[in-house]
Amino acid sequence: MQRPPDLTALRATAVHRLYTLEKENKLTRARITGVADAFSVDPRTVDRWLANARANDGTYTPTSRTRFELTAPMLDAVARWHGNATAAWNELKAENQPVPSLPTFHRAANRALTPGMRAGLRAGENARRRFDISGERPRHHRNYAWETDHVEASVKVRIDGHVRKPWITFFIDCATSAICGLAISPQRPSREGVLVAIRDAVLIDEHHGPFGGIPDYVRVDGGKEFLCKTVGEALGILGTELIALPPFTPEGKPNVEAVNGAIKRTLFAGMPGYTHAPTLLGGKPVDPDQPLLHFESFVGLVREWVHWWNHENPKKGLDGQTPTQAWTADTALIETVSAEALHTYTLERHGKPLTINNSGVRWHKRNYIADWMHGFVGEKVNLRYLPHHEHRVELYDPQSGHHLGPAFMTRQATPAQIRDLKRAQRREADRLRAQLKKAEKNRNTRYAAATQSSPPTPLNAMTEEEALEHLRTLDGFNLTAEALPDLIPLPKPADEWTQPLSTPTKPAHPETPEKDQP
Known about the structure:
Elements (H helix, E strand, L loop, with lengths): L7 H16 L5 H11 L3 H13 L16 H9 L4 H10 L7 H11 L2 H9 L1 H5 L15 E8 L4 E3 L2 E3 L2 E7 L5 E7 L5 H12 L14 E4 L8 H9 L3 E4 L9 H13 L26 E2 H17 L11 H7 L9 H7 L2 E2 L4 E4 L2 E4 L2 E4 L10 E6 L6 E5 L6 E7 L5 H29 L20 H10 L45
Parallel strand pairs: 1-6, 2-8, 6-7
Antiparallel strand pairs: 1-4, 2-3, 4-5, 9-13, 10-11, 10-13, 11-12, 12-15, 13-14, 14-15
């Protein structure tokens, strides 16, 4: 509920004006009635205000009514009970602390704690942030500033036989709310996904549409893939300033957050495998056997949605224009870069030049060859690569920076070998998981339920065979310790047996002969 404005300052100004008129013998009853009507009070109340000003040399000084305020221990109690003022009052009263009535305590707590602080005490920092006020930046012109962020798709998708939730990296133009570029990753994005999205956002051709160019600024959050050296170098070469926002501040990049929320509501919610769909009792899905989309189909639907957002979605913030119309109406110049140069800028560079030998270029214990290498054995080259794409590298002249050509890994494993390797890895992981579950089950101890305050009673009754089985499972059972060779004494040897002779022991230090005494 909105609090009424404080009219004390206005009241003091009006009363001082009446006091001045009274001193000049110009005060009339009509003026007093006019002030009373302005403040919606009785004229006799204005007379009391004027009497207060006479008693304080012409300054209206209202007497404030004393009211109860929470002390520091009381505030600590409210915080300890997570904003529950009634529970804090009961605790203080049980400790014989001087406390007022419960309604008075509640009013004092509401004055001492803002609604945002009370929400934070109840549900944490995210709840408190719902009461924060954030401003709105000016849109400027196109390519003045971009915002980028990752969003996890709220949809389960089939990817190479597995069920996963893809991730999308967006680059949004702040002036027109246009999606300039994106990259879709089957797993959580790394710097490779960011570089691919930068390339898709900057490049302008018949496949990427009218959006793109080199931005002046790019706002990112505190993600390490955005703040890595490779991304910083790529944007630095383009002359773009990277602005790193404080962590957990979505209000700092409202445009990309709006796109993240819109794609969840208008696209993901209608897809099969939507993870936030209504469920049955117990959390079971309504249709557990619904067919899931394959990754390539998911990518196609996302690209269609991006086209709809840019070309068919009018926005109130753009005066009813679509992002395409706002982009076309903007007359700011667009700085571009060639596709070849952009491809070079968005690759990670190996530190020192490498040498072409008879086996190609040796990098990361692997050989890379190409047909153009013939006749260049012994030459130095600079190597650039896209992270996690180790099957192909790009080689450049170290002096001029000229692109010599790509090189490909030799003796790559066949798809069948890679498939068998993944199956073996999954079998090994399943065996380890089963072993860990069995060990954890044996380790956990169950206790009897209690109705009185007493030490917990373990329920660990088992047979001797079960205990030995658990020891074998946990590698704590040693068969050699069960042999017990001294348990049954050996029989005495027979008389006809030949026994070893006992040899006399020699002293460790033989006695030295005593010398004749003089």
